[in-house]
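Input chain follows. Return structure tokens only.
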Amino acid sequence: MARYQVILAYDGADFKGFQRQAKGRISRTVQGEIEAALRRIGWRGAAILSAGRTDTGVHASGQVVAFDLDWKHGPQDLLAALNANLPGDIAAREVCPAREDFHPRFEALARRYRYRVFCSPLRDPLRERYAWRVWRPADLGQLQQAAKLLPGSHDFGAFGSPPGGRGGTVRHVYHAEWAAKTDDQENEYLIFEIVGNAFLYRMARRLVSLQIQIGQGELEIEELARCLESGEKKLVRTLAPPNGLSLVEVIYQDSAGNMAAD
């Protein structure tokens, strides 16, 4: 029996979030599909471990899970076996052996999220599966100025609640920025990237929503500063939709003791 660490990608559009639902509920979840695939290759565990629980409709390209498995072949064979049994909207990207006590959530030093926005007066169903369409246009310069307020330790209680409703609301943001990017089809996007030690429930989506309002001229940057200073619980009511958000990276300590992407 050995513990394995797996990096996953999934399209969250058709899932009721990552976490398996309580008994008696039949909602489709990422965890449920992974565990079903593992059982087909001989896994007998009760539950996999994960780095975090993405919400309904949120995507991932760098989710990390771990599980114990009696596997007689190499990691590449396990990768192939997993992908042969997973549905088309989930893929294992990498498999490697882990310490027997490795926990992807408790050992994570930081997580990186990315949110995609595009500005258009017309609906675009294909793009909107993975990005938030807004109109009026949002000014990139204003968005970039707003993002500069986020790095550091702040009470983000205005933007979310702790998991399970217990614990504090202070979080440390290492990096936050907006950038304009164009994809292979020459579609333009505004991309928000944020790296933090941990995130409150729906914190990233509320941060995006308020910053877009600033970029559209509906709010002043001072409103963001006020929210960060107040710590007032769930002060920000508007919520960017889940389809634009992806968990792209979970960061752990490397062998030299430094933060390193998994």
